[in-house]
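We read letters as residues; the fold follows as tokens. Both lines appear below.
***
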Amino acid sequence: MYDPEYIARFYDNYGEREWERLVVDPVQRVSFEVHKRLLHEYVKAGDRVFEAGSGPGRFTLELARMGARIIVGDISPEQLRLHREKTMEIERSIEERVVVDVVDLSRFADGEFDAVVCYGGPISYVLERADDAVAELLRVTRRGGYLLLSVMSLVGSVRIFFSYFPDLVATHGWDSAVGEVIRTGLLTAEINDGHVLRLYRWRELREMLERHPCRIIAASAANFLVNGNEEAFEEDQRWLEEEIAACREPGALDGGTHIVAVVQRT
């Protein structure tokens, strides 16, 4: 079951590492670029944007540079403290920073925002309440506006982190370490050092989105070619454009660490 207090404590303790995470290695830098490109396609200057699960503000900085006005939300008070510290240069673009849980955005009116951004982990962390989170994110998006979100990928993560599974099988048994994870997408506390989250297949994310008043506009994997090929990406930046294109191929959507979707509220 979703435990918001645990998630808040986890990110309070995670602290500065969340700021470093998106630039720490070539894989993370490519993932950041994949997400950022979609921002530039669907958010425009003058848009009023709600950023859910902002962390310390890497994407907030991008939104401000694009000319958006931003309300920032996160479940972690410490991440919001870091956000204020890391985004001082764009303070005029930020209307407010609020501690908020993505499953309850009742402080905001229906259709209040031109665009809503929910990148990274929020939808994966709310577990059985994912539909509630999507419903709230769409509710506060104006009709015709865009919701940009990402979830952690099941198939891609199993492929990329396959080397961890033999030890998990030895410790927990096949059914718990492999069968349940692949069947349900759920990483339990026992398997994942106390950290519970839900990984998604593209079809599962698509089916969830289709239950809500929106239409899917775009979808992308994050990190398809770069995994295992980091050195080539570091040496030749032209690979980044190939990655961006490959990640949007239908056959690649399940192949990365995250799945990114853009929907338009109807």
